[in-house]
Design goal:
about 700 residues; 22 helices; 19 strands; flat
Length: about 700
Amino acid sequence: MLPAYIAAACASRGPRFGDRVWDVRPFVPRSTRLTRVDFGLIGDPWQERTVREFLYSRINHASPVGRSRTARPMKLTRLQREFWLARTVLRDLAAAGAPRLADAERRHLDQVLAGWKQSGSAAERAGTLKHLAAHGPFLTDALAITPWPGRTAAQVTGDPRSGENNTLRIPEHITAPLIQAAVFYVTTAAGDIIAARAEVAALRHTREAAPVKTRGQARAAVEALIAQRRAAGRGVPAVPARSAHNHRGAPVADGIIQAPNEKFIALLAGLRWTTRKHRDLLAAAAAELGYEAGGLDTPMSPWPVTGRPWRPGMDPAAVHTETSYLRTACWIVIAYLSGMRDAEVRELGRDCAFTEPGADGRDRFKLRGRVFKERRLSGDEAEWVVLDAVHHAVNVLLQINDDPTHLFGYTSGPGVTRARLIGKMPERISEFAAHANVLFSGPGELFIPGQPGGDGGNAGEAAPWAFTTPQFRRTVAWHIAHQPFGIIAGARQYQHAETAMFEGYAGTSSSGFAAEVAAEQATARLDYAEELYRDWDTQGPSGGGAAKTINTEFARIRSELADLPGTAAGPARLRTMLTHLATTLHPGVLGDCFYRPGQALCADRAQPAGEPLPMLNTCLHCPNARRSGKHLPRLQQARDQARDALTAAGRRALPPLQKAALDGHLNQLGQLITQITHAVPAAPENPDSNRTPSR
């Protein structure tokens, strides 16, 4: 059932058309979660045949849907999802009175559509029905009608579409501590975890290398272990909290269960069975020495916020758990500080990290991987420029993972030969956040707070944030577009100018991240244009060469919207009418530029040096500049700094030209401030006069 060009890349021919189960695992990237479909789950023979023929056609034929003139065969990574959708559509049509596609009439389509609109995948199901119609020539049972001709699935279901990214952005009060915890794990806790792994491995090797002890030798080994811990001032390793259900009657002191961790103590003593026959020794030792959490010798590094160890001591089970959290922390650091998609991160190879000198002479940290979205099944090669913390995460993964090809692949324990690839990242990230709260929260305050009104919380209560992998890419793109010189999530400060940052966060990669950042920047400009309009609409002052032109355009928009002070225009329509202004808007510190090349005073200055246009904050008297109350504090600060410079210069003689330049700059700033502080407020217009008819 596979095209020859896919089967040729693998030793196996893949499943046959008549097989009950189609499993395409050998032909898809390892990060693909669901790779098999079972036609035996479909009870109706006609529906089973239709679904089988439909999937075969989707994989092998390109049939345009609706008004589209281009189409591509379906990628195998979508096989399981398309199976579920086709099965669901046929089941719903049968329930509506059309057991076969050929029996479906308009009334049946309308009936199932009404039910789909109550679900969360109405557009997807309607799209599958359109695909069933498009592949009709390859089906034994085909639709006799065209579903909703001339309309897309989104139009049919009323699914709102906009140019803005609808993926939720993780709020900064959640991102900041999450990234802080992940970076701490990668840069600091990783050393403790790796050392503890080595200690456990050494203990197991010693036990396996020694001959099996007799009962008397075993008792002597336990007595020797107790003597060692007595000499070191250590307690008896206690049962971890996760095993409390097995010791319900044991008392708890300072959060430590007062019962011995017999399995771990046996490992420390070199025994191949538990210490149940030596409980009298352990009870006497615990009465004398007390219990301690963990029990391994590896010390824990301090948590920078408190200066105390970042967690209690570890036992082998805790080492295993912390290793899992460390893998998740590495994923978070790589994904967030690169902008890579989930599959792109998890498909990285062990040799993915390298450095190259940049145009400015500084070394660039890079990753080499593959992009899969809207590409061929095997993906296309791509490179990302990243921060050094990402390379640190790669080095950590090389030490804790043992898959021969994939950076995120690992074997789950001793004796296991088949490596697995890290998966279920939303669940893993949520578990890591909850664990960070256990480790790092202060009295009465969560380290990673919840989000008010989130899923799972009562009214007014904050619930844990529901993480998804696309949110990380969206969040870092938003930060680049909105806060290019600020602090990213409290974890580290950007060290580059905007151009270098743009390159550093995949600006030169073929993964499409640059386009997503550009889309975020366009949205940010539109947000800012809306703020300027709202400020003007509430009588906010403005000045500058472009003030009259822009204020006139604002007045026209207000007239179109009948948006008098005290009334509210529809946000969507307002943003649409501001789009043409946002296209030319370049926000600045001392003024905004509504760039028009023919009037730009900075053009002559920038062209000889090859600098990009516009040059913000350089042409204070440019006809393209507009200043508002938002710029007043910065203008006043610049004026005060110029005044202080003149005052300081008064103590010594200044060259005439330098003094004239300072005087001129001070006077210029004073004039710009006066333009804003003495600006005539915009007068409300009568929406019925001079109004352009709406279309």
